[in-house]
Each structure stands twice: as structure tokens, then as C-alpha cells.
Design a protein that fits this description.
The protein is an all-alpha fold. Helices cover 48% and strands 0% of the residues.
């Protein structure tokens, strides 16, 4: 695996672990504790397959397609040395 892909995968795993640490809270409580917008948190939780507690019991819905969950990554900009889509020649 290329270094940039490794970085993307590592960051994706760290985000999932962070979501799982707060999954015992509701989306609103967790978003306040994490300092993130509740709508963004809800979207990430759904896409990463992490269920959060609901205020009146139960769990939030999640993506059920295991292939989509496995392939979900955090968006990072292109590789810094390949910004224009071309290799930069190093001297």
C-alpha cells in the first residue's frame, strides 16, 4: 500500500475509534463533547457503521452494507507532491 493510502486508512480507523468511544451518548451529547456539528457526526456515524444511543432508548441507524463501511475513508487532499495531477521532478 502506498504511504498516502496508509495515512488515509490510519486516519479513517482513528475516526471510527473516536466515534466508538462516544457511542454510549446520544448524537447531540457526543457532538457537544467532541466539538463537531451534530449533522456531521450523524453522517460520519452512519457511514462508519457506528450506532449511537437514542434519547428515548434504542440505537441510531447505520449503513448495513459491509463493503461500503470497509471502504469508507476520510477525505484528504491529493498527495502534496501530486497536486496538479503530474509528478514534480525532484533534482
Amino acid at each position: 500500500m502506498k504511504p498516502w493510502e496508509e495515512l488515509r486508512k490510519k486516519q479513517s480507523n482513528e475516526v471510527k475509534e473516536l466515534l466508538e468511544m462516544f457511542s454510549h451518548l446520544t448524537i447531540v451529547e457526543a457532538s457537544r463533547a467532541m466539538g463537531i456539528d451534530s449533522h456531521q457526526l450523524r453522517t460520519h456515524a452512519f457511514r462508519f457503521g457506528v450506532e449511537f444511543a437514542k434519547q428515548y432508548g434504542g440505537k441510531t441507524s447505520i449503513e448495513t452494507d459491509k463493503k461500503k463501511i470497509k471502504n469508507h475513508r476520510i477525505s484528504l487532499p491529493k498527495v502534496p507532491w501530486d497536486i496538479r495531477g503530474e509528478e514534480i521532478k525532484r533534482h
